[in-house]
Amino acid sequence: MAKPALGIVGLKRMLRDSVGEVETQRHLEAHPWLLTAQQSAHPPLVISQFQLGREFRPDFVFFWMNSSGEFIQLIEIESPKLLAFTASHEFSQKFNHAVQQVRDWPDWILRNSDLFEQAMLPLFERGWITGIPSFTRARLSLIAGRRRELLNNPRRKKRWEAKASDLAVLGVTLRTWDGFASSLHSPAISRDLGWITCVTHAYAKANDAP
Questions:
Q1: Which residue of 6, 100, 174, 196 has the lowest C-beta tally within 10 Å?
Q2: Rounded to two decimals, what is the model's pTM?
Q3: How far apart are CA 26 and CA 147, in angstroms?
């Protein structure tokens, strides 16, 4: 089982070195508990590159529950190198594109419940889940940008906070990479969470049982 400290230290090192999205994605696939640490994943499975029809592909998906109900969590990550702001302190085109993708996901799920269940079938047939997980609501996360873009810049900070507030109403959590890494230091998640498994959706489909 992977030790939490190794996953956190590795992530912080990658952020320090400003690695790209591919390397970051692989690290999270190797340490999927980093994504589920704030929730109780049920089943204990993270799905990488989950295909929502032909339109969307969230970087990660998992399911969780609490006293409020059952949820599906969809996560979009952007490269730690991505600049959220332009030189004129406006949100960059790439950042706005990522925001729009996340905003579109819940509507797709509501309109395409049959396609969603069909996408889950390979995981069931491979034995990675024992049934199609149910959920009452969608929760979304976007991890993009770096804290240094906001430091000592009140205009950017105000715009970031306004964007985060607007997205929160839609069930979307917006975090910088530094904020995400900082959230992993809670004593409540210091235990070993290596039992969380990550599977790539394309692999599950390619190995679908006949």
A1: 100
A2: 0.87
A3: 22
